[in-house]
Amino acid sequence: MSSIHLLDNSLINKIAAGEVIERPASVVKELVENSIDSGASSIVVSVKDGGTSLISVTDNGCGIPSEEVKTAFLRHATSKLQQFDDLENILTMGFRGEALASIAAVSQMEMTTKTKNEDVGTNIKINGGVTEEIKPTGCADGTTVQVKNLFYNTPARKKFLKRNSTEGSYIADVINKTALGHPEISFRLLNNGVVIMQTNGNGDLKTTAFGILGKECIRASLPLNASKNGWKLSGFIVKPEVARGNRSYESFYINKRFIKSDLLKKAAEEGYKGYLMGGKFPITVLNITPPPGCVDVNVHPTKSDVRFNDESFIVDFISGAIAGTLKGEVLIPDAAKPDFSEMSGIKPIKGEEITIDLDAVLNEIEKKESEDENKRGYFDIRPLNPKPLVLNEPKTAEIHKAAEKAEVPVEAEVIPLGKVIDHIEEKDRQTRGEGESILPPSPKKKPFFHNYRIIGQIFFTYWLIQQGNELYIIDQHAAHEKVLYERLSESIRQRSVSSQLLLEPVSITVSQREKRIIEENMELFTSIGFEIETFGRNTYSIRAVPFIFDGTANPVFFTEIVDALEAGRIKDGFELKQDKIAEISCKAAVKGNNVLTYQEARALIEDLLKLDNPFNCPHGRPTIIKMSKYEIEKKFKRIL
Question: What is the CATH number of the domain that holds 189?
Answer without folding.
Answer: 3.30.565.10
